[in-house]
Predict the structure.
Amino acid sequence: MIVWRMWSVFCIFVFSGLEDEGFEMLEELAYLYLANNKLTSAPKVLPPSLISADFAANQLTKIYPYTFGYKPKLRSVYLHNNKLTEAGLPDHMFNGSNSLEILTLSSNFLRVVPNNLPPSLYRLHLKSNKLEKIPAGAFDTLSNLRELYLQNNLLSNEGMDNDTFSQLSSLECLDLSNNNLSVVPGGLPRNLVLLHLEKNAIRSIPGDALTAVRNLEYLLLHNNKLRARSIHPASFMGLKKLHTVHMYNNLLERVPRGLPRRAKTLMLLHNQISELGRNDLALLYTLTELNLSYNKLTSPKVHRDAFRKLRDLEKLDLSGNGLHSLPLGLPRSLQVLEIKNNQLNSIPDGALTGMEKLQKIILSDNQLKLNSVYQGAWMELSALTTLDLSGNQLTHIPSDLPESLEYLHLQSNRISAIPESAFEGTPNIKGIFLRFNRLSVDAVDESSFAHLSNLQVLDIGSGNKRDDLEGDEDEEET
Ligand SMILES: *[C@@H]1O[C@H](CO)[C@@H](O)[C@H](O)[C@H]1NC(C)=O
Ligand SMILES: *[C@@H]1O[C@H](CO)[C@@H](O)[C@H](O)[C@H]1NC(C)=O
Ligand SMILES: *[C@@H]1O[C@H](CO)[C@@H](O)[C@H](O)[C@H]1NC(C)=O
Ligand SMILES: *[C@@H]1O[C@H](CO)[C@@H](O)[C@H](O)[C@H]1NC(C)=O
Protein backbone atom coordinates (compact mmCIF):
# COMPACT_ATOMS: atom_id res chain seq x y z
CA MET A 1 0.00 0.00 0.00
CA ILE A 2 1.42 3.37 -0.94
CA VAL A 3 0.75 6.33 1.31
CA TRP A 4 1.22 9.58 -0.52
CA ARG A 5 1.76 12.78 1.35
CA MET A 6 2.01 15.97 -0.64
CA TRP A 7 1.92 19.16 1.32
CA SER A 8 4.16 21.69 -0.25
CA VAL A 9 3.85 23.88 -3.28
CA PHE A 10 6.75 21.90 -4.69
CA CYS A 11 4.53 18.85 -4.76
CA ILE A 12 1.97 20.71 -6.78
CA PHE A 13 4.63 21.18 -9.37
CA VAL A 14 5.10 17.44 -9.47
CA PHE A 15 1.38 16.99 -9.60
CA SER A 16 0.91 19.34 -12.53
CA GLY A 17 3.55 17.31 -14.30
CA LEU A 18 1.71 14.07 -13.67
CA GLU A 19 -1.46 15.43 -15.20
CA ASP A 20 -4.60 13.34 -14.99
CA GLU A 21 -3.49 9.89 -16.00
CA GLY A 22 -0.62 10.13 -13.57
CA PHE A 23 -2.74 9.18 -10.60
CA GLU A 24 -4.53 6.41 -12.38
CA MET A 25 -1.22 4.65 -12.84
CA LEU A 26 -0.72 4.48 -9.07
CA GLU A 27 -2.68 1.30 -8.94
CA GLU A 28 -2.35 0.78 -5.22
CA LEU A 29 -2.86 4.36 -4.10
CA ALA A 30 -5.04 4.19 -1.00
CA TYR A 31 -4.53 7.39 0.98
CA LEU A 32 -4.12 10.65 -0.86
CA TYR A 33 -3.28 13.81 1.12
CA LEU A 34 -3.32 17.00 -0.88
CA ALA A 35 -4.75 19.33 1.73
CA ASN A 36 -3.47 22.90 2.08
CA ASN A 37 -2.28 23.41 -1.46
CA LYS A 38 -3.42 25.66 -4.26
CA LEU A 39 -5.21 23.19 -6.50
CA THR A 40 -7.97 24.74 -8.56
CA SER A 41 -9.35 21.55 -10.02
CA ALA A 42 -9.29 17.94 -8.90
CA PRO A 43 -7.57 15.17 -10.92
CA LYS A 44 -9.91 13.85 -13.63
CA VAL A 45 -9.24 10.26 -12.66
CA LEU A 46 -8.07 8.69 -9.42
CA PRO A 47 -7.35 4.97 -9.09
CA PRO A 48 -10.06 2.56 -7.87
CA SER A 49 -7.84 1.49 -4.95
CA LEU A 50 -8.47 4.82 -3.17
CA ILE A 51 -9.66 4.62 0.45
CA SER A 52 -9.33 8.21 1.59
CA ALA A 53 -8.81 11.50 -0.21
CA ASP A 54 -8.05 14.79 1.48
CA PHE A 55 -8.32 17.90 -0.69
CA ALA A 56 -9.26 20.28 2.10
CA ALA A 57 -8.11 23.89 1.95
CA ASN A 58 -7.35 24.21 -1.72
CA GLN A 59 -9.08 26.36 -4.31
CA LEU A 60 -11.02 23.64 -6.08
CA THR A 61 -13.85 24.70 -8.33
CA LYS A 62 -14.21 21.48 -10.29
CA ILE A 63 -14.63 17.77 -9.55
CA TYR A 64 -14.99 15.13 -12.31
CA PRO A 65 -17.12 11.96 -12.46
CA TYR A 66 -14.07 9.67 -12.15
CA THR A 67 -12.36 11.76 -9.47
CA PHE A 68 -14.34 10.03 -6.74
CA GLY A 69 -16.65 7.80 -8.82
CA TYR A 70 -16.05 4.04 -9.17
CA LYS A 71 -13.95 3.67 -6.04
CA PRO A 72 -15.48 0.69 -4.26
CA LYS A 73 -13.16 1.07 -1.25
CA LEU A 74 -13.47 4.84 -0.83
CA ARG A 75 -14.44 5.65 2.75
CA SER A 76 -13.70 9.33 3.26
CA VAL A 77 -13.49 12.44 1.11
CA TYR A 78 -12.45 15.79 2.55
CA LEU A 79 -13.30 18.82 0.43
CA HIS A 80 -13.86 21.52 3.04
CA ASN A 81 -12.45 25.00 2.48
CA ASN A 82 -12.53 25.07 -1.28
CA LYS A 83 -14.44 27.12 -3.85
CA LEU A 84 -16.94 24.57 -5.01
CA THR A 85 -20.35 25.52 -6.38
CA GLU A 86 -22.94 23.02 -7.60
CA ALA A 87 -21.84 23.83 -11.17
CA GLY A 88 -18.44 22.35 -10.38
CA LEU A 89 -19.80 19.00 -9.16
CA PRO A 90 -20.77 16.15 -11.51
CA ASP A 91 -24.32 14.97 -11.21
CA HIS A 92 -23.26 11.49 -10.12
CA MET A 93 -20.15 12.29 -8.19
CA PHE A 94 -20.01 8.99 -6.29
CA ASN A 95 -21.42 6.47 -8.80
CA GLY A 96 -19.99 3.06 -7.92
CA SER A 97 -18.44 4.36 -4.69
CA ASN A 98 -20.73 2.64 -2.29
CA SER A 99 -18.51 2.51 0.78
CA LEU A 100 -18.26 6.25 1.32
CA GLU A 101 -18.89 7.08 4.97
CA ILE A 102 -17.53 10.57 5.51
CA LEU A 103 -17.90 13.53 3.18
CA THR A 104 -16.95 17.05 4.15
CA LEU A 105 -18.03 19.91 1.93
CA SER A 106 -18.10 22.63 4.58
CA SER A 107 -16.95 26.14 3.74
CA ASN A 108 -17.57 26.08 0.01
CA PHE A 109 -20.06 28.07 -2.08
CA LEU A 110 -22.83 25.50 -2.54
CA ARG A 111 -26.36 26.84 -2.89
CA VAL A 112 -27.92 23.40 -3.31
CA VAL A 113 -27.29 20.10 -1.52
CA PRO A 114 -25.49 17.73 -3.98
CA ASN A 115 -27.60 15.01 -5.59
CA ASN A 116 -27.13 11.27 -5.54
CA LEU A 117 -25.05 10.93 -2.41
CA PRO A 118 -24.26 7.26 -1.61
CA PRO A 119 -26.50 5.47 0.93
CA SER A 120 -23.41 4.33 2.86
CA LEU A 121 -22.79 7.88 4.13
CA TYR A 122 -22.42 8.11 7.88
CA ARG A 123 -21.40 11.72 8.34
CA LEU A 124 -22.06 14.66 6.03
CA HIS A 125 -20.64 18.13 6.58
CA LEU A 126 -22.22 20.99 4.65
CA LYS A 127 -21.83 23.84 7.08
CA SER A 128 -20.84 27.36 6.05
CA ASN A 129 -22.02 27.22 2.47
CA LYS A 130 -24.74 29.30 0.81
CA LEU A 131 -27.47 26.68 1.02
CA GLU A 132 -30.89 28.23 0.60
CA LYS A 133 -32.90 25.14 -0.11
CA ILE A 134 -32.69 21.40 0.06
CA PRO A 135 -34.14 19.78 -3.10
CA ALA A 136 -36.93 17.26 -2.56
CA GLY A 137 -35.53 13.81 -1.96
CA ALA A 138 -31.92 15.00 -1.48
CA PHE A 139 -31.53 12.96 1.70
CA ASP A 140 -34.03 10.20 0.94
CA THR A 141 -31.52 7.41 0.34
CA LEU A 142 -29.24 8.22 3.26
CA SER A 143 -30.61 5.67 5.68
CA ASN A 144 -27.21 5.18 7.35
CA LEU A 145 -26.51 8.83 7.98
CA ARG A 146 -25.87 9.52 11.68
CA GLU A 147 -24.62 13.10 11.60
CA LEU A 148 -25.72 15.93 9.34
CA TYR A 149 -24.18 19.37 9.66
CA LEU A 150 -26.03 22.19 7.92
CA GLN A 151 -25.24 25.08 10.24
CA ASN A 152 -24.30 28.52 9.05
CA ASN A 153 -26.22 28.52 5.78
CA LEU A 154 -29.25 30.47 4.52
CA LEU A 155 -31.88 27.77 4.94
CA SER A 156 -35.44 28.87 5.56
CA ASN A 157 -38.61 26.86 6.12
CA GLU A 158 -39.57 27.60 2.53
CA GLY A 159 -36.39 25.83 1.39
CA MET A 160 -37.42 22.47 2.88
CA ASP A 161 -40.59 20.49 3.46
CA ASN A 162 -42.04 17.84 5.80
CA ASP A 163 -40.16 15.09 4.00
CA THR A 164 -36.74 16.65 3.78
CA PHE A 165 -35.38 14.82 6.82
CA SER A 166 -38.06 12.18 7.31
CA GLN A 167 -36.18 9.29 5.64
CA LEU A 168 -33.00 9.74 7.67
CA SER A 169 -33.85 6.85 9.92
CA SER A 170 -30.39 6.57 11.52
CA LEU A 171 -29.83 10.27 12.02
CA GLU A 172 -28.82 11.13 15.59
CA CYS A 173 -27.33 14.60 15.26
CA LEU A 174 -28.80 17.34 13.12
CA ASP A 175 -27.30 20.81 13.19
CA LEU A 176 -29.45 23.53 11.63
CA SER A 177 -28.11 26.35 13.76
CA ASN A 178 -27.36 29.77 12.35
CA ASN A 179 -29.79 29.58 9.45
CA ASN A 180 -32.98 31.49 8.68
CA LEU A 181 -35.68 29.17 10.03
CA SER A 182 -38.79 30.80 11.45
CA VAL A 183 -40.54 27.63 12.67
CA VAL A 184 -39.23 24.33 14.05
CA PRO A 185 -39.36 22.19 10.88
CA GLY A 186 -41.76 19.26 10.64
CA GLY A 187 -40.96 15.69 9.67
CA LEU A 188 -37.85 15.38 11.83
CA PRO A 189 -36.51 11.80 11.95
CA ARG A 190 -37.49 9.80 14.99
CA ASN A 191 -34.04 8.70 16.13
CA LEU A 192 -32.58 12.16 16.58
CA VAL A 193 -30.76 12.60 19.87
CA LEU A 194 -29.27 16.05 19.42
CA LEU A 195 -31.04 18.86 17.57
CA HIS A 196 -29.35 22.22 17.05
CA LEU A 197 -31.76 24.99 16.10
CA GLU A 198 -30.04 27.88 17.83
CA LYS A 199 -29.32 31.19 16.09
CA ASN A 200 -32.25 31.17 13.71
CA ALA A 201 -35.29 33.42 13.72
CA ILE A 202 -37.62 30.77 15.15
CA ARG A 203 -40.83 32.29 16.44
CA SER A 204 -42.92 29.20 17.05
CA ILE A 205 -42.97 25.50 17.80
CA PRO A 206 -45.99 23.71 16.29
CA GLY A 207 -47.66 21.03 18.39
CA ASP A 208 -46.55 18.14 16.20
CA ALA A 209 -43.05 19.16 15.11
CA LEU A 210 -41.13 17.40 17.87
CA THR A 211 -43.43 14.77 19.33
CA ALA A 212 -42.28 12.00 16.95
CA VAL A 213 -38.66 12.50 17.91
CA ARG A 214 -38.88 10.10 20.81
CA ASN A 215 -35.16 9.75 21.43
CA LEU A 216 -34.40 13.44 21.62
CA GLU A 217 -32.09 14.28 24.53
CA TYR A 218 -30.71 17.72 23.71
CA LEU A 219 -32.76 20.51 22.20
CA LEU A 220 -30.93 23.75 21.56
CA LEU A 221 -33.19 26.68 20.76
CA HIS A 222 -31.22 29.59 22.16
CA ASN A 223 -30.85 32.86 20.27
CA ASN A 224 -34.21 32.74 18.53
CA LYS A 225 -37.40 34.78 18.78
CA LEU A 226 -39.61 32.45 20.78
CA ARG A 227 -42.44 33.78 22.91
CA ALA A 228 -44.08 31.45 25.40
CA ARG A 229 -47.47 31.79 23.71
CA SER A 230 -46.14 30.56 20.36
CA ILE A 231 -44.82 27.34 21.82
CA HIS A 232 -47.64 24.82 21.53
CA PRO A 233 -48.37 23.30 24.98
CA ALA A 234 -48.20 19.80 23.46
CA SER A 235 -44.84 20.42 21.75
CA PHE A 236 -42.82 18.28 24.15
CA MET A 237 -45.40 15.66 24.95
CA GLY A 238 -43.96 12.17 25.30
CA LEU A 239 -40.33 13.27 24.91
CA LYS A 240 -39.20 11.22 27.85
CA LYS A 241 -35.51 11.34 27.11
CA LEU A 242 -35.29 15.08 26.59
CA HIS A 243 -33.15 16.28 29.48
CA THR A 244 -31.46 19.43 28.23
CA VAL A 245 -33.33 22.39 26.80
CA HIS A 246 -31.63 25.68 26.01
CA MET A 247 -33.98 28.57 25.37
CA TYR A 248 -31.82 31.47 26.46
CA ASN A 249 -31.80 34.70 24.49
CA ASN A 250 -35.37 34.48 23.26
CA LEU A 251 -38.41 36.66 23.93
CA LEU A 252 -40.10 34.43 26.50
CA GLU A 253 -42.43 36.48 28.68
CA ARG A 254 -43.12 33.56 31.01
CA VAL A 255 -42.01 29.95 31.50
CA PRO A 256 -43.53 28.07 28.53
CA ARG A 257 -46.24 25.56 29.33
CA GLY A 258 -45.74 21.89 28.72
CA LEU A 259 -41.95 21.82 29.07
CA PRO A 260 -40.53 18.27 28.93
CA ARG A 261 -41.32 16.40 32.13
CA ARG A 262 -37.93 14.76 32.43
CA ALA A 263 -35.91 17.90 31.84
CA LYS A 264 -32.81 18.12 33.98
CA THR A 265 -31.27 21.32 32.70
CA LEU A 266 -33.34 24.29 31.71
CA MET A 267 -31.56 27.39 30.48
CA LEU A 268 -34.04 30.26 30.35
CA LEU A 269 -31.64 33.13 30.93
CA HIS A 270 -31.79 36.36 28.96
CA ASN A 271 -35.51 36.38 28.28
CA GLN A 272 -38.31 38.71 29.41
CA ILE A 273 -39.82 36.47 32.06
CA SER A 274 -41.53 38.73 34.61
CA GLU A 275 -43.50 36.23 36.63
CA LEU A 276 -43.25 32.78 38.20
CA GLY A 277 -46.75 31.53 38.86
CA ARG A 278 -47.64 28.85 41.36
CA ASN A 279 -47.72 26.08 38.75
CA ASP A 280 -45.23 27.31 36.16
CA LEU A 281 -42.56 24.87 37.37
CA ALA A 282 -44.87 22.35 38.99
CA LEU A 283 -44.39 19.51 36.51
CA LEU A 284 -40.62 19.67 36.31
CA TYR A 285 -39.96 17.12 39.03
CA THR A 286 -36.60 15.97 37.72
CA LEU A 287 -35.02 19.36 37.16
CA THR A 288 -31.51 19.68 38.60
CA GLU A 289 -30.43 22.96 37.04
CA LEU A 290 -32.59 26.01 36.42
CA ASN A 291 -31.08 29.17 35.06
CA LEU A 292 -33.43 32.15 35.07
CA SER A 293 -30.79 34.84 35.23
CA TYR A 294 -31.25 38.13 33.39
CA ASN A 295 -35.01 38.14 33.17
CA LYS A 296 -37.50 40.61 34.60
CA LEU A 297 -38.57 38.87 37.77
CA THR A 298 -39.66 40.99 40.71
CA SER A 299 -40.38 39.75 44.23
CA PRO A 300 -44.17 40.28 44.23
CA LYS A 301 -44.42 38.24 41.00
CA VAL A 302 -42.59 35.17 42.29
CA HIS A 303 -45.18 32.92 43.88
CA ARG A 304 -43.98 31.56 47.21
CA ASP A 305 -44.93 28.05 46.16
CA ALA A 306 -43.42 28.28 42.69
CA PHE A 307 -40.44 26.04 43.53
CA ARG A 308 -42.28 23.52 45.69
CA LYS A 309 -42.02 20.55 43.31
CA LEU A 310 -38.38 20.96 42.37
CA ARG A 311 -37.12 18.48 44.90
CA ASP A 312 -33.96 17.56 42.98
CA LEU A 313 -32.90 21.07 42.03
CA GLU A 314 -29.18 21.53 42.65
CA LYS A 315 -28.39 24.78 40.86
CA LEU A 316 -30.59 27.85 40.68
CA ASP A 317 -29.60 31.13 39.11
CA LEU A 318 -31.82 34.20 39.55
CA SER A 319 -29.11 36.80 38.94
CA GLY A 320 -29.82 39.96 37.01
CA ASN A 321 -33.49 40.24 37.90
CA GLY A 322 -35.34 42.86 39.93
CA LEU A 323 -35.80 40.90 43.18
CA HIS A 324 -35.95 42.85 46.43
CA SER A 325 -36.24 39.89 48.70
CA LEU A 326 -34.72 36.42 48.61
CA PRO A 327 -37.63 34.17 47.53
CA LEU A 328 -39.15 31.92 50.16
CA GLY A 329 -39.74 28.26 49.52
CA LEU A 330 -36.55 27.53 47.58
CA PRO A 331 -35.79 23.80 47.34
CA ARG A 332 -33.72 22.36 50.15
CA SER A 333 -31.83 20.24 47.67
CA LEU A 334 -29.97 23.32 46.37
CA GLN A 335 -26.19 23.14 46.20
CA VAL A 336 -25.57 26.39 44.33
CA LEU A 337 -27.71 29.50 44.60
CA GLU A 338 -26.84 32.60 42.62
CA ILE A 339 -28.84 35.78 43.04
CA LYS A 340 -26.29 38.43 42.20
CA ASN A 341 -27.08 41.74 40.59
CA ASN A 342 -30.63 42.21 41.88
CA GLN A 343 -31.92 44.75 44.40
CA LEU A 344 -32.04 42.41 47.37
CA ASN A 345 -32.45 44.27 50.63
CA SER A 346 -33.95 41.43 52.59
CA ILE A 347 -33.34 37.80 53.35
CA PRO A 348 -36.59 37.07 55.15
CA ASP A 349 -36.82 34.89 58.20
CA GLY A 350 -36.40 31.23 57.35
CA ALA A 351 -35.59 31.74 53.66
CA LEU A 352 -32.46 29.59 53.98
CA THR A 353 -33.71 27.22 56.63
CA GLY A 354 -33.00 23.55 56.07
CA MET A 355 -30.60 24.09 53.17
CA GLU A 356 -28.12 21.58 54.39
CA LYS A 357 -26.67 20.86 50.98
CA LEU A 358 -26.00 24.44 49.96
CA GLN A 359 -22.31 24.82 49.18
CA LYS A 360 -22.21 28.10 47.38
CA ILE A 361 -24.36 31.19 47.71
CA ILE A 362 -23.63 34.21 45.55
CA LEU A 363 -25.45 37.40 46.58
CA SER A 364 -23.04 39.98 45.21
CA ASP A 365 -24.16 43.37 43.91
CA ASN A 366 -27.33 43.80 45.90
CA GLN A 367 -28.37 46.18 48.65
CA LEU A 368 -27.97 43.98 51.67
CA LYS A 369 -27.18 45.49 55.06
CA LEU A 370 -26.34 43.64 58.21
CA ASN A 371 -29.91 43.77 59.48
CA SER A 372 -31.40 42.74 56.12
CA VAL A 373 -30.44 39.19 56.96
CA TYR A 374 -32.20 37.30 59.72
CA GLN A 375 -30.04 36.31 62.68
CA GLY A 376 -28.50 32.87 62.27
CA ALA A 377 -29.13 32.66 58.52
CA TRP A 378 -25.57 31.66 57.62
CA MET A 379 -24.96 29.49 60.65
CA GLU A 380 -27.64 27.01 59.53
CA LEU A 381 -25.91 26.34 56.23
CA SER A 382 -23.77 23.49 57.42
CA ALA A 383 -22.31 22.58 54.00
CA LEU A 384 -21.58 26.13 52.89
CA THR A 385 -18.08 26.67 51.54
CA THR A 386 -18.50 29.91 49.55
CA LEU A 387 -20.39 32.99 50.68
CA ASP A 388 -20.24 35.95 48.32
CA LEU A 389 -21.68 39.16 49.72
CA SER A 390 -19.45 41.52 47.78
CA GLY A 391 -20.91 44.76 46.46
CA ASN A 392 -23.48 45.21 49.21
CA GLN A 393 -23.85 47.66 52.09
CA LEU A 394 -22.53 45.67 55.01
CA THR A 395 -20.83 47.61 57.77
CA HIS A 396 -19.59 44.58 59.71
CA ILE A 397 -18.42 41.07 59.05
CA PRO A 398 -21.41 38.75 59.66
CA SER A 399 -21.10 37.21 63.09
CA ASP A 400 -22.87 33.93 62.39
CA LEU A 401 -20.64 32.34 59.76
CA PRO A 402 -20.80 28.53 59.49
CA GLU A 403 -17.87 26.36 60.44
CA SER A 404 -17.67 24.84 56.95
CA LEU A 405 -16.91 28.17 55.27
CA GLU A 406 -13.83 28.30 53.02
CA TYR A 407 -14.25 31.46 50.96
CA LEU A 408 -15.76 34.71 52.14
CA HIS A 409 -16.19 37.53 49.64
CA LEU A 410 -16.91 40.87 51.28
CA GLN A 411 -15.16 43.27 48.93
CA SER A 412 -16.91 46.57 48.10
CA ASN A 413 -18.96 46.93 51.26
CA ARG A 414 -18.71 49.49 54.07
CA ILE A 415 -16.85 47.44 56.62
CA SER A 416 -14.68 49.54 58.90
CA ALA A 417 -13.52 47.09 61.54
CA ILE A 418 -12.61 43.46 61.99
CA PRO A 419 -13.31 42.35 65.54
CA GLU A 420 -10.86 39.94 67.10
CA SER A 421 -13.56 37.27 67.26
CA ALA A 422 -14.68 37.65 63.61
CA PHE A 423 -13.27 34.32 62.41
CA GLU A 424 -13.40 32.35 65.62
CA GLY A 425 -16.05 30.02 64.26
CA THR A 426 -14.51 29.43 60.82
CA PRO A 427 -11.37 27.32 61.25
CA ASN A 428 -11.53 26.02 57.66
CA ILE A 429 -11.43 29.33 55.91
CA LYS A 430 -9.03 29.57 52.96
CA GLY A 431 -9.81 32.94 51.44
CA ILE A 432 -11.05 36.24 52.87
CA PHE A 433 -11.63 39.11 50.46
CA LEU A 434 -12.05 42.59 51.91
CA ARG A 435 -10.84 45.01 49.25
CA PHE A 436 -12.73 48.26 48.78
CA ASN A 437 -14.10 48.63 52.28
CA ARG A 438 -13.43 51.25 54.92
CA LEU A 439 -10.77 49.51 56.93
CA SER A 440 -7.96 51.53 58.44
CA VAL A 441 -4.63 50.04 59.48
CA ASP A 442 -5.50 49.93 63.15
CA ALA A 443 -8.90 48.37 62.42
CA VAL A 444 -7.19 45.20 61.28
CA ASP A 445 -5.99 43.14 64.20
CA GLU A 446 -3.52 40.51 63.05
CA SER A 447 -4.60 38.23 65.87
CA SER A 448 -8.04 37.87 64.23
CA PHE A 449 -6.35 35.67 61.62
CA ALA A 450 -3.60 34.05 63.65
CA HIS A 451 -5.42 30.81 64.34
CA LEU A 452 -6.63 30.27 60.73
CA SER A 453 -4.20 27.57 59.68
CA ASN A 454 -5.85 26.98 56.30
CA LEU A 455 -5.85 30.61 55.22
CA GLN A 456 -4.25 31.00 51.79
CA VAL A 457 -5.55 34.39 50.66
CA LEU A 458 -6.22 37.38 52.84
CA ASP A 459 -6.99 40.20 50.48
CA ILE A 460 -7.44 43.53 52.18
CA GLY A 461 -5.57 45.09 49.26
CA SER A 462 -6.26 48.50 47.88
CA GLY A 463 -9.31 50.64 48.23
CA ASN A 464 -9.15 50.54 52.01
CA LYS A 465 -7.85 53.19 54.33
CA ARG A 466 -4.64 51.26 54.67
CA ASP A 467 -3.44 52.81 51.41
CA ASP A 468 -5.35 55.51 49.82
CA LEU A 469 -8.18 56.65 52.01
CA GLU A 470 -6.04 57.78 54.92
CA GLY A 471 -7.37 60.97 56.41
CA ASP A 472 -10.64 60.90 54.49
CA GLU A 473 -12.87 61.78 57.42
CA ASP A 474 -16.13 61.66 55.45
CA GLU A 475 -15.77 57.94 55.00
CA GLU A 476 -15.89 57.39 58.76
CA GLU A 477 -18.89 55.35 59.71
CA THR A 478 -20.17 53.63 62.79
C1 LIG B 1 -24.05 7.25 -12.81
O1 LIG B 1 -25.19 6.43 -12.66
C2 LIG B 1 -26.34 6.94 -13.29
C3 LIG B 1 -27.51 6.09 -12.91
O2 LIG B 1 -27.15 4.74 -12.89
C4 LIG B 1 -26.09 7.03 -14.79
O3 LIG B 1 -27.23 7.55 -15.41
C5 LIG B 1 -24.91 7.89 -15.05
O4 LIG B 1 -24.58 7.91 -16.43
C6 LIG B 1 -23.72 7.44 -14.26
N1 LIG B 1 -22.67 8.42 -14.40
C7 LIG B 1 -21.43 8.10 -14.66
C8 LIG B 1 -20.46 9.23 -14.75
O5 LIG B 1 -21.06 6.96 -14.81
C1 LIG C 1 -46.64 19.16 6.55
O1 LIG C 1 -47.20 18.86 7.79
C2 LIG C 1 -48.21 19.76 8.16
C3 LIG C 1 -48.64 19.43 9.56
O2 LIG C 1 -48.58 18.06 9.80
C4 LIG C 1 -49.36 19.66 7.18
O3 LIG C 1 -50.35 20.57 7.54
C5 LIG C 1 -48.83 19.98 5.81
O4 LIG C 1 -49.86 19.79 4.87
C6 LIG C 1 -47.68 19.10 5.46
N1 LIG C 1 -47.11 19.53 4.21
C7 LIG C 1 -46.65 18.69 3.31
C8 LIG C 1 -46.06 19.32 2.09
O5 LIG C 1 -46.71 17.49 3.43
C1 LIG D 1 -35.00 34.85 5.82
O1 LIG D 1 -36.28 34.35 5.54
C2 LIG D 1 -37.26 35.34 5.34
C3 LIG D 1 -38.59 34.65 5.10
O2 LIG D 1 -38.82 33.74 6.13
C4 LIG D 1 -36.88 36.21 4.16
O3 LIG D 1 -37.81 37.24 4.00
C5 LIG D 1 -35.48 36.80 4.39
O4 LIG D 1 -35.07 37.49 3.25
C6 LIG D 1 -34.50 35.69 4.67
N1 LIG D 1 -33.21 36.27 5.02
C7 LIG D 1 -32.09 35.84 4.48
C8 LIG D 1 -30.84 36.51 4.94
O5 LIG D 1 -32.06 34.95 3.65
C1 LIG E 1 -26.39 30.46 34.30
O1 LIG E 1 -25.94 30.65 32.98
C2 LIG E 1 -24.87 31.56 32.84
C3 LIG E 1 -24.58 31.71 31.36
O2 LIG E 1 -24.27 30.49 30.79
C4 LIG E 1 -23.66 31.04 33.60
O3 LIG E 1 -22.61 31.97 33.51
C5 LIG E 1 -24.05 30.81 35.04
O4 LIG E 1 -22.95 30.26 35.73
C6 LIG E 1 -25.24 29.88 35.13
N1 LIG E 1 -25.62 29.73 36.52
C7 LIG E 1 -25.38 28.64 37.24
C8 LIG E 1 -25.84 28.65 38.64
O5 LIG E 1 -24.81 27.66 36.78
